[in-house]
Amino acid sequence: MSELTEVEKICTLALIHTPGVGSITIRQLISYCGGAEEVFQADYRKLIHIPGIGEKVVRAILSKESVGMAEKEFVSCSNTDTSLHFFTDPTYPARLKPLYDSPIVLYSRGNFDFNMARTVGIVGTRQISDYGKSVTETIIKELEPYHALVVSGLAFGVDITAHRACLKHNMPTVGVMASGLNVIYPSVHKKAASEMLGNGGLVTENALDTKPDFMRFPARNRIIAGLSDITIVVESARKGGSLITVEFAQNYHRDVYAVPGMLGSVHSEGCNFLIRDNKASIFTSVADMAVAMGWEQNGKDPEPVRPVQMQTSFEGFTQDEGQILALLKQKGNMQLDELAWQAGMHLNKLAALLLNLEFQGMIRSLPGKKYGLI
């Protein structure tokens, strides 16, 4: 998969800045237009006929106001040691790339590797009990020999307890934010967030100065779940953000563990519910979890996770995706028109499929509207 040019990166940021446009809509726009730059070059007639793109979004794109905002954002990132990880970049997290709703771009600060071999998400209530605090600190201490990256949300309660325990044990930890990197929320966690930059860091899909409004928290939770091999729920009420994170983790086919709590405790009602309904494995210790995951405590860093490599068979893909991959394997690099003719597909349908395969790290776009296997 080829890396985006600077112009394409700015245009991609401009789409993110466009009101009413999210990551799935951006995929739709790019797939129909052929690239982020081409979206802003398209006219009204082309844009309005793209499925799911309404009049309001079309007018916002045509105004091109977001392009100027994106240019300033791009410069601000360079001036604040903020890294941008676009979906085509080698630094983009391999665990997120195959997900249908993964962010188009991630902003990060700090010193860490998204693709460490073991990642553990730790989530839970903001109203943490003494029991929850003790369990969280014990989990972090027991994770230390396994060389895992700990992911959480920098929130009150379980999240910040996990981050601070990682700092104490010199373990890498990443805070996934519902705001932009210039807006630490809650503000009382600024000191911990600053300390995390030395061994870990901060990540978000939001522009630098974005405020943390209500709807950004569920979106943040999907990133926590997507970055984590395992999500551990320490304490949770029957409803709340932790259970939303669990739903995402299950949708992504990731392992979920819940810490059992005292019967009748409001803090543990959600965890006990997850265990009762077989939505999470019961957490008893990191050692037991490591056995279930096949982890070895060998004192050495295991191999990092790599992006999906080309397979010799195309199991797990749709029939249409498999047909495209088979054609590219048989004939090598192919032009878009030729591929559409050979596959017997309309260009709009083919463009959407090609973009999805690019997101999965299976193919790459080449100059001259050609495509090839990675």
UniProtKB/TrEMBL annotation:
Gene3D superfamilies on file: 3.40.50.450, Winged helix-like DNA-binding domain superfamily/Winged helix DNA-binding domain
InterPro entries named among the record's database cross-references: DprA, DprA_WH, DrpA_SLOG, RuvA_2-like, WH-like_DNA-bd_sf
Start and end residues of each DprA winged helix domain: 318-369
Annotated Pfam families: DNA_processg_A, WHD_DprA
GO BP annotations listed: DNA-mediated transformation
SUPFAM superfamilies referenced in this protein's UniProt entry, alphabetically: MCP/YpsA-like, RuvA domain 2-like
Domain Smf/DprA SLOG: 85-291
Family according to the record: Belongs to the DprA/Smf family.
PANTHER family (alphabetical): PROTEIN SMF
Name of the protein in its database record: DNA-processing protein DprA
Organism, scientific name: Dyadobacter chenwenxiniae
